[in-house]
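Sanity check

After download, print the first record. It should look like this:
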Amino acid sequence: KGLERDEQLSDYAFALIGGLTMTTTERLARFEAAQEVLGFLMAVRAEWIYIESKKAQPEASKIAQWVAEQDAFFEIEDGLRFDDQDGIEQVITTYGPVARRIFEAR
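Expected structure tokens:
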């Protein structure tokens, strides 16, 4: 009887966990959202670099900072994996608001 109860609890726990997981389509959407956020942030840096480099006296330190940020975003995006839901959510949580602020300020 104890074993039967453990199996029922196990089934119940599995059902609860299953209800909290995302479908493949939802996971793919989150993965693509993270990629889009990083891609947008890289593109914005490219724009800033271009604008700064066209100035009569461009600030090399700004350009160097933006290149470094662009490289960091590329590395994060390159390391992003579909099966790393925590990493995907971290990108969205960390960089999503930054991307939104830049986008809304345009």
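If your output differs, re-run the checksum step. Summary of this record's structure: The chain has a mean pLDDT of 88.
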